[in-house]
Amino acid sequence: MAYKEKEIEKLYYSIGEVAEIFNVAPSLIRFWESEFELIQPKKNRKGNRQFTVEDINNVRTIYHLVKEKGFTLQGAKEMLKNDTQSVKDKMEMIDSLKRIRQFLSEVRDKLH
């Protein structure tokens, strides 16, 4: 996986923390926010973005389409417009299969 797995445990995350999770610049997260209705973090009184776990999962979906699958922004928008849940389900299945593969590789390595 290109992004770093990080335990999600807080109620709100800053844009810097979200950018760090995916190893991208905060400006990219702001850009995606302006391009995709799916990303709508709350803003506090100072105007700082506050991302929830759901927001982070929405960023993960866009990251998956654009960075991992190579979709253009327009292509990603079309995919999400047609069936957001299907995209998320496929992404979850891929993540699950990657975890199983990693587990099996670790078992294989311990056996050798």
Written description of the protein model:
The protein is mainly alpha-helical and 112 residues long. It has a single domain (15-111), classed as Orthogonal Bundle (Multidrug-efflux Transporter Regulator, Chain: A, Domain 2), CATH 1.10.1660.10. The protein has four helices and two strands; from the N terminus they run H-H-E-E-H-H. It has helices spanning 15-22, 26-35, 53-68, 73-111, and strands at 42-43, 49-50. A two-stranded antiparallel ribbon has the order 1-2. The longest helix is centred in the last third of the chain and has 39 residues, at 73-111. The protein is globular. The model has no long low-confidence stretch (mean pLDDT 85).
Count the helices. How many? 4
- In the predicted model, the low-confidence regions spanning at least 5 consecutive residues are none
Cross-sheet strand order for the largest sheet:
1-2
Spell the H/E element sequence.
HHEEHH
N- and C-termini, Cα separation: 25 Å
CATH topology: Multidrug-efflux Transporter Regulator, Chain: A, Domain 2
Task: Give the overall silhouette.
Answer: globular
Largest sheet at a glance? 2 strands, antiparallel
Sheet-strand content, in percent, reads: under 5%
**Coarse structural class:** mainly alpha
Q: Which radius of gyration do the C-alpha atoms yield?
A: 16 Å
- Kindly give the count of domains: 1
CATH architecture: Orthogonal Bundle
Number-wise, the strands total 2
Approximately how much helix is present in the residues? 55-70%
Mean pLDDT across residues: 85
CATH top level class name: Mainly Alpha
